[in-house]
Amino acid sequence: MWDRMGADKQERNTIVHSFNRNFAKRADGNPNTLAFVASPELVTALAIAGDLTFNPLTDTLTNEKGEQVKLDPPVGDELPTKGFAVEDAGYQAPAADGSKVVVDVKSDSKRLQLLYPFAAWEGTDLKGLRLLIKAKGKCTTDHISMAGPWLKFRGHLDNISNNMLIGAVNYYNEKTDSVKNQLTGEYGPVPATQRAYKAAGIGTIVIGDENYGEGSSREHAAMEPRHLGVRVVMVKSFARIHETNLKKQGMLALTFANKEDYNLVQEDDSIDVIGLTSFTPGKSLQLVLHHADGSTHTIEANHSYNQQQIEWFKAGGALNVIRSQALGKA
Predict the structure, then answer these.
(1) Are 164 and 145 spatial neighbours (Cβ–Cβ below 8 Å)?
(2) Residue 182 CB neighbour total at 10 angstroms
(3) Are 302 and 283 in contact (CB under 8 A)?
(4) What span, in angstroms and rounded, lies between the C-alpha atoms of 38 and 117?
């Protein structure tokens, strides 16, 4: 799906498939590809005919004898008559002692990369965060971590992070993949701008609209911002699964107590998150917006963290907690 010939020419074309949903650029990275979802039977009929206008109920095809023939209606069992019995389930039990197991991945691999633990919280409030992007309108997991040609990098966190938020619309210029780098004053791609902040040791914040992160439960949509140094995602409202995914990666997932405060965030803001040293369930945090003209706004930030999820944040992610617990039992 993501290796279609000629997609780079961005020609207008059509795909008819029997799976997944239709988002711009999802199938092959081409914004001019129109994708339609149909039943497997209809997709098969269109593939045989090679004609989008073909109607298998009424139209005919020419066979090898030159005869006009119609496709037989599809038939089959709705469920396997012998059930789903499988002799080889494909399961391979782990080694009894995994301490000697080495996962060897080439350092120059473009598609595979070992994961390393994210850093634990430093124990202080977050000061001097820069605004990476203020996303306007719908921002799904496909906007945050686009599929299509990027799927070949799903095993390489750093490479797939080059698609981070490239589909999100920047509130300030109505463009995608174009945000202001506060270090240079220039506009550039979101991932490159975030990498510049990371190299400078500067944390960032992403501001979002309603139902941020809706769509598939794509873990990369949370892992990529975490990997590149985004510390906080604050929105009017979250899609539930994405909010949980952010928590699992040790990030701050916050919502505006007053949704109108979304409008107070300015492009050149420096932002502080206050209250983390007493981070507890049910107790809101504060964001201090330091504007370029010297003025400030303090706004209330709600969260839905329970005590276990707060421990994820402090440890730098849920996997870090699991690791420490496993080592403690060893």
Answers:
(1) yes
(2) 20
(3) no
(4) 42
The identity of residue 152, as a single letter, is K
Token couple for 168: 């999100």
**pTM, to two decimals:** 0.77
CATH fold group of domain 126-329: Aconitase; domain 4 (3.20.19)
**In this predicted model, what pLDDT tens digit does every residue of 191-235 receive, in sequence order?**
999 999 999 999 999 999 999 999 876 899 999 999 999 999 999
Domain with CATH 3.20.19.10 in the chain: 126-329
* Alpha-carbon distances, residue 313 vs 124, 161, 254 (angstroms): 12, 21, 13
Cα torsion at 312, 316, 317, 320 (round to 10°)?
-100
Strand partners, 180: 187
DSSP per position, 197-242: HHHTT--EEEEE-TTBT-SS--THHHHHHHHHTEEEEEES-B-HHH
pLDDT tens digit string along 16-70? 988 876 777 777 778 888 889 999 999 999 999 999 999 999 999 999 999 999 9
- Alpha carbons 304 and 302: distance in angstroms, whole number: 7
The dihedral over CA atoms of 46, 49, 53, 58, expressed in degrees to the nearest 10, equals -100
CA 54, CA 42: separation in Å to the nearest integer? 10
What would the pLDDT profile of 93-141 be if each residue is shown by its tens digit? 888 888 889 999 999 999 999 999 999 999 999 999 999 999 999 999 9
297 contact partners, CB below 8 Å, separation of at least 6: 261, 264, 288, 289, 291
Distance CA 224, CA 184 (A): 23
